[in-house]
Amino acid sequence: MICFCKVIRYHPDEFKQAGVDSGDLGLHSVRKGSCSYAAAGTTVAPPMVSICLRAMWSIGRVKEGYMSFERACDQYLGRVITGMDCNEASFAISPPYFDFTGCDDSKKKDKMLNQIVSNFMVGGVHLTPRVFHIVKMCYASLCYHTDFLKNTLHKESYLQSLPFFTQIPKALQQFVCTRLPWSSTSHTPKFTGMCSVLVIFISLLKLTMFLLFLT
Question: With 70 as the cut, is the pLDDT of residue 61 above it?
Answer without folding.
Answer: yes
